[in-house]
Amino acid sequence: MSFQAYLDAIEDKTGLTPRQLVEIAETKGFNDPSVKAGTILEWLKADYDLGRGHGMALVHVIKKGPQIDSKHVGSEGTHRDESDMLWLDGKASKPASS
Questions:
Q1: pTM (two decimals)
Q2: Hey, which end of the chain has fewer CB within 10 Å, N or C?
């Protein structure tokens, strides 16, 4: 599953866009460099029933922003993304792929 597919599935499950979840995480201080991924995963599990795979995609965005390594773009396999910049504003507002 690609990073973007994980984020889209998180939106389906929670009803919140990835950007909204990032904003909530920031209010909790989870974007601080000292906060470990496990702490964020525990919050996502407790409040949104997200598992580790989905949670780690969101941890990446919370801690590092929406840009992913270009090695995932256009590569073969299930983890291929169309762009190195993830869309955080919801599936409905995502520009169509060219």
A1: 0.85
A2: C
